[in-house]
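Here is one chain, start to finish.
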Amino acid sequence: MHPKDPVSKGKKCDLIYKVECKDQQCQASFIGETSQPLKDRCSQHHRASTNSAVFDQQQTTGHTYDLEDVQILDREPRWLERGVRESIHEKKDTQQEGGPQT
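Its structure:
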């Protein structure tokens, strides 16, 4: 590894991210934030023991989310500002899709 090598997506942290439902008939998506490496947070979405709206949605609908194809929307190291940016992205996403966020 060289000092200028890019960091892989799964190792990036302090992110606002978006995951989408794999079901072609479903428009559901989820926007979240994490201070953890993205790979670690995505693995938590598969477990009931964590606070995960993605896991809850999967259990309720039987749909799955593509946790390998997560979109990084923004990066912010400060917790409060990251939460604000997450809210802004959720609002933008809701307006683009024309309805409430799932």
